[in-house]
Amino acid sequence: MADASEDLSPDDLPAAGTHRSADLRAVREDYSLAGLSEEEAGDDPFALLRRWMDDAIEADLYDPTAMVVSTVGDDGRPSSRMVLCKGFDERGLVFYTNQQSRKGQELGEHPDCALLFPWHPLQRQVRIEGTASVVDAGESDEYFASRPRPSQLGAVASPQSQRVASREALDQRLAALEEQYDGQDVPRPPQWGGYRVAPTYFEFWQGRKGRLHDRVVFEKCDDGSWERYRLAP
Ligand SMILES: Cc1cc2nc3c(=O)[nH]c(=O)nc-3n(C[C@H](O)[C@H](O)[C@H](O)COP(=O)(O)O)c2cc1C
């Protein structure tokens, strides 16, 4: 069993695809890869997030930067979807999207949101709650320019979250844009850009035997410091 302070390697992970039962009640794992003590968690949630992100990348998880973003609409109904985290520091976690999408519109009205890193092959999840704001246009420009050209064209072609007549309509729009921008840089569409989620709450969850998991929370205090405490699993 690996200690949480050690790197988790792919060899530590349980074998995938070992479930053979159609009875969902019988599909379960017992978690024993690691634990999370207060000492290992430390005092800085961003530093711990960095260590766990490094573990997820080194363990070769598929899309290790993918996180669920949950937003709330005017009607109070929550909705969730995955995005890719493109960086984080003490200011918050950044992702890019179409700001006229459902999530963009909801964040415009209700900037409080929740993030979740589903690193379950490492028997971990990280829950984050915070407030989203739009990143500077210059930062979005810089990231957009670094994206592969097909992703740039896709961002221009897609009126994200709106109804489209057909797959063919989207493909035709892409073909027209390929022609329009032939031999030229693709400019960032004004509605496409980044959000930075400034956290006020982190929960680091490490699965343990017998469902007695470790849950270590960091909650932001008024003076900007972090209060650390443990929750019952
Ligand atoms: C692994 C994964 C990563 C994704 N990354 C992004 C992303 O970085 N930005 C984005 O706008 N959509 C991303 N998507 C698509 C979103 O989940 C979602 O379908 C889209 O943003 C529209 O969501 P909305 O209609 O709720 O706004 C990703 C989907 C998956 C499964």
UniProtKB/TrEMBL annotation:
Q: Does the keyword Metal-binding apply?
A: no
Q: Which SUPFAM superfamilies match?
A: FMN-binding split barrel
Report domain Pyridoxine 5'-phosphate oxidase dimerisation C-terminal positions: 192-233
Alphabetically list the UniProt keywords: Flavoprotein, FMN, Oxidoreductase, Pyridoxine biosynthesis
Give the region (Disordered) as residue ranges. 1-21
The pathway it acts in is: Cofactor metabolism; pyridoxal 5'-phosphate salvage; pyridoxal 5'-phosphate from pyridoxamine 5'-phosphate: step 1/1; Cofactor metabolism; pyridoxal 5'-phosphate salvage; pyridoxal 5'-phosphate from pyridoxine 5'-phosphate: step 1/1
Any idea what job this protein has?
Catalyzes the oxidation of either pyridoxine 5'-phosphate (PNP) or pyridoxamine 5'-phosphate (PMP) into pyridoxal 5'-phosphate (PLP).
What name does UniProt use for this protein?
Pyridoxine/pyridoxamine 5'-phosphate oxidase
Q: What is the lineage of its organism?
A: Bacteria, Bacillati, Actinomycetota, Actinomycetes, Propionibacteriales
